[in-house]
Amino acid sequence: MKISEVEVRCCRRLPDAFDAGAFRTGDFSAFQFLAVTMKTDEGLSATTFGFAGRSAEGAGKLIADTLRPFMLGRDPRDRERAWHEFRTADRWWGHLPIYGYGPFDTLQWLLSAEAAGQPLYKYIGAYRDDVPVYGSSMILAKPEDYAKEALRAKAEGLKAYKLHTPGKDLEEDLEAHRLVREAVGPDFTLMSDPVSTFNLEQAIRFGRALEALGYYWYEEPLYDEDVHALRELTRTLEIPLVGTEVLAKHPYSIAECIATRVVDRVRADVSWTGGVTGVMKTARLAEAFGVNCEIHTSIFHPAEIVNLHCCAAVKNCDFFELLYPVEGFAFGLKDPLPIENGVAKLPSRAGLGVDLDWDDIDRCTVAIV
Ligand SMILES: [Mg+2]
């Protein structure tokens, strides 16, 4: 079986249900993403979505020019060979952004699983058939908005809620965390992700407050590459520190983070950290050190469901992350993600196991490169 065709669609989608002020930079105006399709000489075809930052056409052209010639003619089952040859090629001349290779690795896995007649997670090797889900907030306008949203998530049956706070004022961010704890009560699982907001001193102060409020984990309070300060923070606090979702070159860059406990739990996802192969390498590496790899959202549901397959194929991940409220992100798949009462159920059909919404993809396509 050989890869005979690679199509990269550059896509843009105006946010209808999505709050345009939701991103911290405030200049968010539309989702930009890639829809990447890989076909084989045996008539198989798979499509996934790729991240594209703020320029689908920019990212699409760069990635297609680099990875189409790299992929054509390969057997999609020879993923490990492609992985290592890409690592070398990327060091020598490619230097793609962290989100470049993920969709291409994912597509090789989907085609292989399809050819084997297995759902992806069974083809990888399943650990479970369903995964608990947490709602992961956007940046909201006021502290009390988080409390309202957390209550909604709890009422919908989600198993936990994570706050992304604005990061402009430490006291205001803490107030949001306090109000959420008050609203949902002492037993509901809560996490905090300030997304690289603090210096070390502030991060210690904030973390101690989270400990007093009974938060379950504390994610990326400092930039992922602030290795020394993060290690210090992990030693200082009781609450588990979580990070590494934006470090390039998983799993190699993560080895030191795990071995010297830069953080307590690592992160990986199919979009930013090398597709299914990258996630599995990082998750298995972490497992051998007794560490969890909390799989990070891949934002777009056609990639998110690949994350779900990965979640079901590892033991050391507590939750499936779902950006919330879900309606702002519910596009790209024909049917909603298979979540019932806060539990995501794995599809039983071969490959991805669900259908893409091609009418929507066609509407969003601005260029095919
Ligand atoms: Mg995060």
3D architecture notes:
This is L-alanine-DL-glutamate epimerase-like enolase superfamily enzyme. It comes from Chelatococcus asaccharovorans. Pfam families: MR_MLE_C (PF13378). Keywords: Magnesium, Metal-binding. The protein has 369 residues and is of the alpha/beta class. It has two domains: 3-118 and 357-368, Enolase-like, domain 1, CATH 3.30.390.10; 122-345, Alpha-Beta Barrel (TIM Barrel), CATH 3.20.20.120. Helix content is 39%, strand content 19%. The chain has twelve helices and 14 strands. The strands form two sheets. Strands 4, 5, 6, 7, 8, 9, 10, 11, 12 and 13 form a ten-stranded mixed beta sheet that branches. Helix 7 links the parallel strand 6 (189-192) and strand 7. Helix 3 (102-116) crosses helix 10 and helix 5 runs parallel beside helix 6 (170-184). The longest helix is centred in the first third of the chain and has 16 residues, at 56-71. The radius of gyration is 20 Å and the shape is globular. The two termini are 24 Å apart.
Tally of alpha and pi helices: 12
What compounds are bound to the protein? magnesium ion
Largest sheet: number of strands, sense, barrel closure: 10 strands, mixed
- Report the structural category: alpha/beta
- Briefly, what CATH class of the largest domain? Alpha Beta
Shape: globular
The CATH topology of the largest domain is TIM Barrel
Protein name: L-alanine-DL-glutamate epimerase-like enolase superfamily enzyme
Cofactor: Mg(2+)
Pfam family, one: MR_MLE_C
GO molecular function: hydro-lyase activity; magnesium ion binding
